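Hi F.,

I've been meaning to write this up properly since the lab meeting, where we talked about keeping a consistent format for the predictions we share between groups. The idea is simple: the sequence comes first, exactly as it goes in, then the structure tokens exactly as they come out, then a line or two of notes. No screenshots and no reformatting. I'm using this chain as the first example so we have something concrete to point to.
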Amino acid sequence: MASIQNYTLNFGPQHPATHGVLRLVLELDGEVITRADPHIGLLHRATEKLVETKTWAQALPYMDRLDYLATICNEHAYCLAVERLLGVDVPVRAQYIRVMFDEITRILSHLMFIGSHGLDVGAMSMMLYACREREDLLDCYEAVSGSRWHTAYYRPGGVYRDLPDAMPQYKESKWKNGARLKRLNEARSGSFLDFLQDFVNRFPKIIDDYETLLTDNRIWKQRLIGVGAISSERALQLGCTGVMLRAGGLAWDLRKKQPYAVYDRLDFDVPVGTAGDCYDRYLVRVNEMRQSTRIIQQCIDWLRANPGPVISDNHKVALPRRADMRSNMEELIHHFKLCSEGIHVPEGQVYSAIEHPKGEFGVYVVSDGANKPYRLKIRSAAYAHLSAVDELVRGHMIADVVAIIGSIDIVFGEIDR
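Output, unedited:
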């Protein structure tokens, strides 16, 4: 009788759970995985090399194209690195705006996680609910930057512009009219902060609804509990950060341990798990959305009470006001030099990291004193997490691979950069 030998199976890139561009080569014993080999390279865009040919300002939008579900957080790490090389101080109001948008972005990323992870495991309606809330937050992106996706809102020295005094309103149409139109525009009748306040007021109840659907759902628990478990000690050895680390019980969060911007002035907790499995990673992200809501509320209260500049007044770094440029020759020269040559960053090298929704996102920059980066290296959290897949999936069934990949919450823009 012929013996049954191990065989290999290509899991992806066509499989929807691999997010389009991941190929996992699985070695199987029956339906039990004995080895997993992640293959990347299908999306490679050479971001780090392209940036070397762009000015410091032109390089910023490339950050948006990395983890395209956490665009603004990518920008923050890059801006912090450039600002440290320049020795530029960022106005406090701009720092509060940055923190507020970092947390808006964290919620956006976790909403996509809960929707796509639910979809992978079989909870169809979660994606619909998550996209409903994402629309409001994407409206916040659009209000300040004009774009719902790739914002390029942060700039070295601050942010592009202050928060708007009014939000765009829906116009009457055959789909939106009467009482429905009035209800849709009710939260949009005030300023940007009024609109965001309305979202913050109702979002905790919405998270409760998500948990009602999933947290104690027996199918959800059967698919996630005990699957892809990893201890915090082993996660550290594998280079894991963020939720992958905190789900195992280690409360490591750069916002607390290595504060940047104004995180040291804000009150929030760092959610942790115990088992380090897929279920704990889900619970940590849900609780992080609650903590992000707390942080946003504190930022709203501070920003209402403290008007002020939102970008550096050093015009060798930031563009002068257009009104000043039209009336002052020196400001006109600054404008011309910045638009034609860009910023000249002093020689040096720096590594700047933030607590990204996926973990520690770092930017290592080398400057030779020119108007372009000499070298830029990105430290992607999800890249390290993907390298741990082999260890996470061993001994599990093929169906569990879907749950494990979903719980890691990978976005290939930052992995295959």
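Notes:
The first helix runs from residue 47 to 51.
Residues 155 and 357 are 20 Å apart (CA to CA).

If this format works for you, I'll send the rest the same way.

G.
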